[in-house]
Specification:
The complex is a heterodimer of chains A (130) and B (203). By secondary structure, chain A is of the alpha/beta class. Chain A has a single domain, classed as Response regulator (Rossmann fold), CATH 3.40.50.2300. Chain A contains five helices and five strands. Chain A has a five-stranded parallel beta sheet, with helices on both faces. In chain A, helix 2 runs parallel beside helix 3. Chain B starts with 9 loop residues before the first helix and ends with a helix. Chain B contains six helices and no strands. Chain B is elongated and about 105 Å long. The relative contact order of chain B is 0.10. In chain B, helix 3 packs antiparallel against helix 4 and helix 3 packs antiparallel against helix 5. Chain B is mainly α. Chains A and B meet through helix 1, helix 4 and strand 5 of A and helix 3, helix 4, helix 5 and helix 6 of B.
């Protein structure tokens, strides 16, 4: 089944430039409903109150990191606990990738990345975009 | 030096020396006192020379002027690149809207090129994180200079006793802060391919 391009996507990053880059690339891929948050805490509030089809989050943010957000989401006994979650980060140490996977991340993109990688990882998590 | 609570002040040093004298064998006190006096004189000479060396290296100027100036300059670099990147992206968004209107092959070419510019704009995020690491290192050096000068009873500015963020630690899930290391240097970085292989091992 093809991905619903009208689904809500949440982009989480404390660098406004990166939020803008991701939003523009997602629009180019075909997604139209893109929301944003500047750290894990703001993102968690949004996730608790809106049904997202995908969360794309940075790791290194304050006060709540993307890793803490991932653990909070996966640890919740609520409707959002299994939301697809892709980490997009400059943290590229093996320990980071293993920690994220163990916490339940669906895929992991290391910065800098390109549109093709972003599209490929979204497809590997959600299925063909078309 | 890292922990301000472990830095010895002059009063504490005097107390320690007094304690040593009190514990000395009274029978051999005079002889031991002479040895101790010589040792203390040597220690005093060493401290004096250390203070002189620190003065000559202008540590105070480094602490009060050069390090704050350097961090300020680096913050300005981040700010300027962020502003420039946002201007570039605004221009790209305008071009992208025009590409949609133009349509056809030309519109597609324009759109593809705009995508490349968006991708390239990621440099601002990476350089910003790298500069933040450098700023944290400078703050750590500043902290250590302050503690050293304070321990030597030299004049220092106000010290922020909160230890600056550590620049590097052994990464561990037990200490999530240790997983915050920012971008790696290209020759040490794990590639996207390596990450994909690692993730595949979990499937």
């Amino acid at each position: 089944m093809a991905v619903d391009k009208g689904m809500d996507i949440l982009v989480v990053d404390d660098y406004q430039t990166m939020v803008r880059i991701l939003k523009n690339l997602l629009k180019q891929i075909g997604f139209s409903n893109i929301d944003e948050a500047s750290d894990g805490r703001e993102a968690l509030d949004k996730i608790q109150n809106r049904e997202y089809g995908l969360v794309i989050s940075d790791w290194n943010m304050e006060p709540m990191t993307g890793y803490d957000l991932l653990k909070a989401v996966r640890g919740a006994e609520d409707h959002y606990s299994d939301v697809p979650f892709i980490m997009v980060t400059a943290e590229s140490k093996t320990e980071n990738v293993v920690a994220a996977k163990q916490a339940g991340v669906n895929n992991y993109i290391v910065k800098p990345f390109n549109a093709e990688t972003l599209k490929g990882k979204i497809e590997s998590v959600l299925g063909p975009i078309g | 030096m890292n922990n301000p609570e472990k830095s010895y002040q002059r009063g504490q040093v005097v107390q320690i020396i007094q304690s040593v004298i009190d514990k000395m064998d009274k029978g051999q006190a005079d002889q031991q006192l002479d040895v101790l006096k010589t040792e203390i004189a040597t220690l005093a000479e060493t401290i004096y020379r250390l203070k002189l060396d620190i003065t000559q290296t202008e540590a105070g100027q480094l602490q009060h002027e050069k390090i704050p100036d350097a961090t300020e300059e680096l913050d300005a670099v981040v700010e300027a690149t962020a502003e420039a990147t946002n201007n570039i992206m605004s221009a790209c968004e305008t071009i992208e809207n025009l590409a949609d209107k133009i349509g056809g092959d030309d519109g597609m070419i324009l759109s593809t090129e705009v995508t490349k510019v968006y991708e390239a704009c990621g440099f601002q995020d990476i350089t910003g994180q790298r500069i933040t690491k450098v700023v944290n290192t400078l703050k750590e050096i500043d902290f250590k200079i302050s503690m050293l000068m304070q321990a030597l009873d030299m004049q220092v500015g106000p010290i922020d006793h909160k230890k600056p963020e550590a620049v590097s630690q052994e990464p561990s899930t037990e200490n999530p802060d240790s997983l915050l290391n920012g971008p790696q240097m290209p020759d040490a970085a794990v590639s996207q391919d390596d990450i994909d292989k690692l993730l595949a091992e979990f499937d």
